[in-house]
Amino acid sequence: MDRKKINDELDDRLLEKLYDIIRYVNPVAKSTNEKVSEFIINASEVHCFSIMHSKEVCNNCISMRALNENKIIMKFEYSNGKLYLITAVPEAQNNRVLELIRDVTEEHLLENIDGLSDELIIEKIMKLNKEIITDSLTGLYNRRFLDERMPFEIAKAVSNKLPISVVMTDIDFFKVVNDTHGHVVGDQVLKEFSNLLMVAVRDDKDWVVRYGGEEFLIFLHAIDRSNLLKRVEKIREMIESHVFCKEEQALRLTASFGVYTQDVSDNLEVGKAMHFIQFADMALYIAKNNGRNRTEFY
Predict the structure, then answer these.
(1) What confidence score (pLDDT) does residue 11 get?
(2) Whole-angstrom distance, CA of residue 77 vs CA of residue 178
(3) For residues 8 and 98, what is the distance between their CA atoms, to the nearest angstrom?
(4) Secondary structure class of 130 (helix, strand, coil)
């Protein structure tokens, strides 16, 4: 046996002692490979998130983030009374991630959980994970969530032959609000605007991201073009009729919307996820040029 093979086998055996589960993950498809090496076999699961007894994709997908940022990322998860530390190690050249999972229940790595009920521990970990992917001002998802989630949504749509749509929107003349009334009022406007968007989407299928400043992205799953236009126009009209900062200023504002939708097919490249955003942003630019307070399709 040559030296390289001996070293590889020693590394594998060391990893086996350090971690309870070692597996390769495809972060886009959320799938796992059963065999990592001659010595290391992971628990066979259809989806990577199934190992934590979950039926839903993780909102805080560190494997997708590890691949995007090409760096090692860690997080805690809690399942069946046990605390786990998960480490995601990217292999960019193979477009996959090595996940190292260790039971750390007895290692006291997470502060202030001794004596807490399972429900409170889960709540604490969910809060920590949520803070990473949430915009602190509006409570919406942030760009990190978008980068992690969008490729998976496209892959799922391709698999199920369902359309997906991206809507870019921003508040018309928002700079005037900040310049005239100050940033405190501007922040309140952003919060109320975000709440209106959240009320308008379906909790189980859609999500909203604060893309930057006063610009927001809405992801809509499995909705045809005619119903999509009705949905976006309803949001636009709801914003137009809303009184912002009623107690302080009573502001009337409008928003413009750019929409891109596609009936996906097997030949759609999941790696082209950002094209959806680019096209929706171009449609938003058209809406702005055509007078604002309107919806335009790319």
Answers:
(1) 53
(2) 41
(3) 15
(4) helix
Q: Which two tokens stand for residue 125?
A: 């970990």
Q: Which residues of 215-246 are buried (b: 16+ CB within 10 A; e: fewer)?
A: ebbbbbbebeeeebbebbeebbeebeebebbe
Tens of pLDDT along 218-264?
999 888 888 999 999 999 999 999 999 987 778 999 999 999 998 76
How many whole angstroms separate alpha carbon 86 and alpha carbon 100?
6
In whole angstroms, give the CA distance from residue 60 to residue 25: 15
Q: Which residues are CB-contacts of 171 (< 8 A; sequence separation ≥ 6)?
A: 177, 189, 190, 193, 214, 253, 254, 255
Q: Is the dihedral of CA 57, 63, 65, 68 positive or negative?
A: negative
Per run of 10 residues, the mean pLDDT along the chain (length 298 residues) is 44 69 86 55 62 80 90 89 88 87 82 79 84 93 90 80 91 95 94 96 89 96 88 96 87 96 63 80 97 96
User: Which structure tokens are listed for 62?
Assistant: 């560190």
29's tokens: 């498809």
- Catalytic one among 99, 192, 214, 296? 214
Q: For residue 106, what pLDDT is reported?
A: 83
Determine the pLDDT at residue 267.
Answer: 55
Active site residue 214: yes
As a residue count, the chain comes to 298
Q: Which residues are bridge partners to 220 per DSSP?
A: 165
Residue 11, helix vs strand vs coil: helix
What contacts 174, CB < 8 A, 6 or more positions away? 186, 189, 213, 214, 253
Give the relative orientation of helices 183-200 and 174-181 as an angle to the nearest 10 degrees: 140
Tokens found for residue 251:
């502001």
As a whole number of angstroms, the distance between CA 218 and CA 151 comes to 15
Do the Cβ atoms of 100 and 89 come closer than 8 Å? yes
Q: How do the residues of the chain divide into helix, strand and coil, expressed in percent and rounded to 5?
A: 45, 25, 30
